[in-house]
Design brief:
Two copies of one chain form a homodimer.
Chain A: H1 8-19, E1 24-25, H2 26-35, H3 42-54, E2 58-62, E3 68-72, E4 79-83, E5 89-92, H4 98-108, E6 111-112, E7 118-122
Parallel strand pairs in A: 4-7
Antiparallel strand pairs in A: 1-3, 2-3, 4-5
The first copy, chain A, binds a DNA duplex (30 and 30 nucleotides) through α1 and α3.
Chain lengths: 127, 127
DNA sequence: CGGTTTTTGAGACCGAGTCTCAAATCCCTC
DNA sequence: GAGGGATTTGAGACTCGGTCTCAAAAACCG
């Protein structure tokens, strides 16, 4: 019981996510899937994304309109630097944060929970 | 033309916001307003919050369910350290970030847009 | 192929947020 | 404090992202 099947919808979604290092909304994925000739229902898109996120194979983030977006993501713990211009996401190692975390604690008595940091700006190619 | 009136709904909302340094959702404000005997319609709550945000007198943020939340905010540019436990918000001066911003640029070629940073963790009294 | 389990899709449903427009409020003047 | 023009409000319809349901379809296994 509780076995997992490999299905066409799941593979089609994974393929799209793996192709680009950026966040996709469910609506965006549905549109892409329609175009690519393998339409998938909204319900299934949401279910699949939720499943990937639970397994740690996708990162979830809410965009500035409050919509859930997802990105393929297989490494360990890290943060995201998101380009405002092209949407490209670059991973930021935790080490880069250490001195800042120290200051936050000594200046503000604030103990940072490192699992929720996200940075916005311009990437190499968009500066 | 285009004058601004001071009305009871607006004053009631401002009063609630000013009383605590944390973010309130529109639903939360509606409930508080009902309790306090000056009920205000959802439409008006949203309009008032939008107006405050536009004038820079309130900060907008989306919570983890994608709902818009608002907090009274009258200082200049700064970031927020938000306590996961009590919701209390502490302002973080930009200076604390300088060395981190440098590293982000040299290591990742990423130019941080400093206007969108937000930190989560535990505040002094909740650690 | 046949049977069992998992997955899918269509569409109903939910809830946050927006929009509309007539009625109420504000404020200025007399 | 009454009159009147400009602004604001409230009730409720509406939109849209996301969830839920359940019968039908697909995946797997012998």
């Amino acid at each position: 019981m509780e076995t997992e099947y490999e299905t066409r919808p799941r593979e089609a979604i994974a393929r799209i996510l793996r192709a680009e290092p950026r966040f996709f909304s469910a609506a965006e994925l549905c549109a892409r899937l329609d175009e690519s000739g393998t339409p998938v229902s909204r319900a299934t898109v949401y279910r699949t994304l939720e499943r990937l996120a639970a397994k740690g194979e996708a990162a979830l983030r809410l965009n500035d309109r409050g919509e859930a977006t997802f990105m393929s993501c297989d490494n360990g713990h890290h943060h995201h630097a998101i380009c405002r211009s092209c949407g490209r996401v670059e991973d930021v190692a935790c080490g880069a944060l250490d001195s800042f975390v120290d200051r936050l604690r000594s200046l503000h008595g604030f103990q940072l929970d490192e699992h929720s940091l996200e940075f916005h700006g311009k990437c190499r190619s968009c500066v």
